[in-house]
Amino acid sequence: MRTRTAMLLGALLLLLAGCSSAGGDGTGPIRLRFQSLAWQQESVAATRELVQEWNATHPGVQVEYVQGSWDSVHDQLLTAFEGGEAPDIVHDASDDLADFAYGGYLADLTDLLSDRLTADIPKRSWRTTMFGDGIYGVPFLQEPRVLIANAAWLRASGVRIPTPERPWSWAEFRQATARLSGAGKYGVAWPLKEPVSATLNLSLSAGGRLFHRGADGRVTVRFEAGDAVVPRTVRDQVADRSAPGSTLGSGGADTLPGFFGGRYAMVPLGFSYRQQVAQQAPEGFEWQVLPAPAGADGLTQGVSPQTLSIAEDSPHKKEAAAFVDFLLRPGNMVRLALGDWMLPTGTRALRDPALHTAEDGWAVGAALAAHLSPAPAQSVRGYPEWKDKVATPALQEYYSGAIDLDELRHRLEHDGNLILSRYQR
């Protein structure tokens, strides 16, 4: 009997211990799950170190690091949200948040964020995570698109080297790529396997907007003169053999062997690709970072920052917000930015000297930070469907020469507006 009673008491104590470890009921620590999408070795290490530092100094609130993947994050999060199994803190990108925010899956952070964090991140960055009257994510890392260039090739050609203070215009860019081309070599290689974000974000410099919100809040697609500058530039470069058509279906990393091998003088890439260039470039290979071309609106570019959100179902939103605030202190934000080879959104972090060195083009990127604006599709409901079903195939066909500009305009506008209208009823 005594043995049986002892066993029952032991089972009860184990049950109580399990409840306390999961719930923060006063008998054990609150436990939060943080799903991170860090994937580069330096970035994963920096993020894990910060989680460990938090746990060492906050025994009452312990954070579990959960590794996620950019490749499947949208579908994985949707399944987790609908199944009530979402992590407390969610790492994502701002252009993926609209449907989650409007669907009620993410907590409104307006009253949860510290004054320090709210003031440190510029309003233009906060606009990337604002839907309706709420804030549904903290934008913390961002990257402009830049030109990664073969420095020796550019010097030998005699073309003017652009700087953030005096960038190329889109017309000058065309002239430079033509001058750099010939004898089986190309002035630029465009990796446009995913053509939509690159086209839309770069088009902001030329005054392109594509998505227009009316007084009633409804969004319509209008393909205007500014929206045509980037697609026409790419199409013309392929036509006059300033750019190879063979890379249009490639990802950014796919163009690096040809770049290192002297086939392409420049490749337009996200700022974080510098890490791969620095690690993979042959010994003695000289490369440099140039700003993307400027148009009627200067160096303006659209960006979709990486974000941290809190699940609406989390029972510990205040504690989760405190962890986010810790993770994004200026010094910590710098560590995350350096680990991901990206730029922090925080103004204090962006002033760190490590982000203003000439080495690896950090200074060029930092100079572009003030010109980064919310991506055109940032708050458009139905954008993922429009992108997958209309914009991606239409742009791929246009760049390959299968359709002309008028047909591209018709498909983006007519077919696109049919899709968007379903989300705005």
What is the strand content? 5-15%
* Largest sheet report: 6 strands, mixed
Q: Outline, from the CA principal axes?
A: globular
* Helical proportion, percent range: 40-55%
- Uncertain stretches: 1-22
Compute the number of helices: 18
Which sequence of strands runs across the widest sheet? 2-1-3-13-6-14
Q: Give the overall average pLDDT.
A: 92
Using only C-alpha atoms, the radius of gyration works out to 24 Å
* Number of extended strands: 15
Helical/strand content category: alpha+beta
Termini separation (Å)? 68 Å
Please provide a written account of the structure.
This protein is of the alpha+beta class and 425 residues long. Helix content is 44%, strand content 15%. The protein is built from 18 helices and 15 strands. The chain has helices at residues 2-23, 41-57, 73-82, 98-102, 115-120, 123-126, 151-157, 170-180, 195-203, 225-239, 256-260, 274-280, 317-327, 330-340, 347-350, 362-368, 383-399, 405-422, and strands at 30-36, 61-67, 89-93, 130-131, 134-135, 138-142, 145-150, 211-213, 219-221, 266-270, 287-291, 301-303, 306-310, 343-344, 372-374. The strands form five sheets. A six-stranded mixed beta sheet has the order 2-1-3-13-6-14, with helices on both faces. Strands 10-7-11 form a three-stranded antiparallel beta sheet. Strands 4-5 form a two-stranded antiparallel sheet. Strand 8 and strand 9 form a beta hairpin. Helix 2 (41-57) runs antiparallel to helix 14 (330-340), helix 8 (170-180) packs parallel to helix 10 and helix 9 packs across helix 10. The longest helix is centred in the first third of the chain and has 22 residues, at 2-23. The chain is globular. 45% of the residues are buried. Residues 1-22 have low confidence and may be disordered.
